[in-house]
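User: I'll paste a sequence; please echo it back and then give the predicted structure.

Assistant: Echoing your sequence first, then the prediction.
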Amino acid sequence: MILITQHQIGVQQDYINGVITGVLKFETEDDKNLKNLSKAELLKKLTEVDEKLVKILSDKNIGNKKIKTPWSKNPISAVSSDCQAPLFLHTVSK
């Protein structure tokens, strides 16, 4: 459970940061720090990240936001449903 929670939080944080900065990067310093959290701290962090994700997805301009990703030479939509670019679809499928 703890590794799954760490992964879920890390992925959501990476995608949220990608929308905010316009560039998707994996394995950030935030991800590494998750390994030091207790189960209770991870669950609290998961709730916080979920709330942040809902806030970003609720932005009326989310459909217009583009993100540079490692797998595409052209920026993609933050809410793309393309199998090559499953940004938020991956994070909300828990």
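Confidence is low (pLDDT under 50) at residues 83-87. The first helix runs from residue 2 to 21.
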